[in-house]
Write a structure and sequence with these properties.
The chain is an alpha/beta fold and 310 residues long. The protein contains 15 helices and twelve strands. The protein binds 1,3-dihydroxyacetonephosphate and iron/sulfur cluster (SF4).
C-alpha cells in the first residue's frame, strides 16, 4: 500500500476512534514517526498507565501490549502483529518458573518486564532496564532474590548492586549477537569514541562500555556527552532518533558475529510490525489483546509496585 495513503488513513482513524499510538524505539522508523509517543519500556508503561484514549495501539512486542492491557482493562489494546514475540518472554515457561519459585519459597521474585502475564503473576516486583537497580536496592539486605528471565541483565545487576541473585537462564537473541572482536577492531579505529550498551548485552560487551543503560538512557547519554562518536550496542532502531535530532554525532552500530554488510543488530520480533499492519489493526480494531481477569489481577500487583517506586 502507498505510504502517503497509510499515513493519512492512520491519522484519520486515530482521531475518529480516539486512539493513541505508543511505539518502542526498536520499531521501524515510519512507525516511530507517526506515533504519539516513542519511548523505552518504562516510559511506555507509564504512558500506558496515564493514557486518556479509548484505544491504545501498542507498536512494540506482545509483552508490552499485554502490560498495557493489564494496566488498562477497560481500554481496547491493539498490537499490529500478534506474533511479535520476544526471546526473553517466550523462553520463560510459567510451569518451570513456578517450580523454581516453590523450591525457594523465601526468595523475593523480581521479574524483568520482558515476560508473560503468567510470570508477572508469580512475581513480587516487575522492573525494566532503567529501574532494575533501584528495585533490587529497595529489597531489604539479607532477603534472597530470584531474578528472571534475563541472565545478562541479572549478572550486570549482581555486579552493580553487590547482591547475590538467583538467575533464570534466559537471554535476548538480539543483544547476544554482538561480536567482541569486531567491536574492539572498530574501537581501535575510533579511539575517541564512547561505547554505549544495553544491559541485556553479554558481560564481555558490557565490560568495554563507557555507559550502560536502557534505550532512553543511551539516547540521553549520546545527547549530553561531549564526545562526537559513539559505538552503540543495542537494536538499530534507536539510531533513527539520533538521526532525526541532527546532533552532529557519528553513531556506529556495534557489529554482530554474522554480519559483514549492515553490521547492526535488528530484532525480528519488533520489525514484524509494519506501517501497513498498524493501519489495518486500527481499521479492523484487531488483533486485540485480551487477558483473563483473575490472571490480570495477580499480574498488576508487581507492575503497580514498580510504577509507584519509579
Ligand atoms: P528498554 O526499552 O527498557 O531499554 O528495553 C529494551 C528491550 O529489549 C525491549 O524489549
Ligand atoms: Fe525481546 Fe530482545 Fe527483541 Fe527486546 S530486543 S523484544 S528483549 S528479543
Amino acid at each position: 500500500m502507498d505510504k502517503l495513503f497509510l499515513v493519512s488513513e492512520i491519522n484519520r482513524l486515530r482521531q475518529e476512534k480516539d486512539a493513541i499510538i505508543l511505539a518502542h524505539y526498536y520499531q521501524e522508523k515510519e512507525i516511530q514517526d507517526i506515533a504519539d509517543f516513542v519511548g523505552d519500556s518504562l516510559e511506555l508503561s507509564k504512558k500506558a498507565a496515564t493514557a486518556d484514549a479509548a484505544i491504545i495501539v501498542f507498536a512494540g512486542v506482545y509483552f508490552m501490549a499485554e502490560t498495557a492491557k493489564i494496566i488498562n482493562p477497560n481500554k481496547k489494546v491493539l498490537l499490529p502483529d500478534i506474533n511479535a514475540g520476544c526471546s526473553l518472554a517466550d523462553g520463560c515457561d510459567p510451569l518451570r518458573f513456578k517450580a523454581l519459585k516453590e523450591f525457594y519459597p523465601d526468595h523475593v521474585v523480581v521479574t524483568y518486564i520482558n515476560s508473560s502475564a503468567e510470570i508477572k503473576a508469580l512475581s513480587d516486583w516487575v522492573c525494566t532496564s532503567s529501574n532494575a537497580k533501584k528495585i533490587i536496592e529497595a529489597i531489604p539486605e539479607g532477603k534472597e532474590i530470584i531474578f528472571a528471565p534475563d541472565k545478562n541483565l541479572g549478572m550486570y545487576l549482581k555486579k552493580v548492586t553487590n547482591r547475590d541473585l538467583l538467575l533464570w537462564e534466559g537471554s535476548c537473541v538480539v543483544h547476544e549477537a554482538f561480536s567482541l572482536d569486531k567491536l574492539i577492531e572498530i574501537y581501535n579505529a575510533n579511539p575517541t569514541a564512547k561505547i554505549v550498551a544495553h544491559p541485556e548485552s553479554e558481560r564481555h560487551i558490557l565490560e568495554t562500555a563507557h555507559y550502560i543503560g536502557s534505550t532512553s538512557g543511551m539516547l540521553n547519554f549520546i545527547r549530553n556527552n561531549s564526545a562526537t562518536t559513539f559505538i552503540v550496542a543495542t537494536e538499530a532502531g534507536i539510531l533513527h532518533q539520533i538521526a532525526k535530532e541532527t546532533l552532529q554525532k557519528t553513531i556506529i552500530p556495534a557489529p554482530t558475529y554474522e554480519d559483514n554488510t549492515c553490521a547492526c543488530s535488528e530484532c525480528a520480533f519488533m520489525k514484524i510490525n509494519t506501517l501497513e499492519k498498524l493501519y489495518l489493526c486500527l481499521k479492523n480494531e484487531s488483533p486485540e489483546i485480551t487477558i483473563e481477569e483473575e490472571l490480570r489481577l495477580q499480574a498488576i500487583k508487581p507492575i503497580n509496585r514498580m510504577l509507584h517506586l519509579s
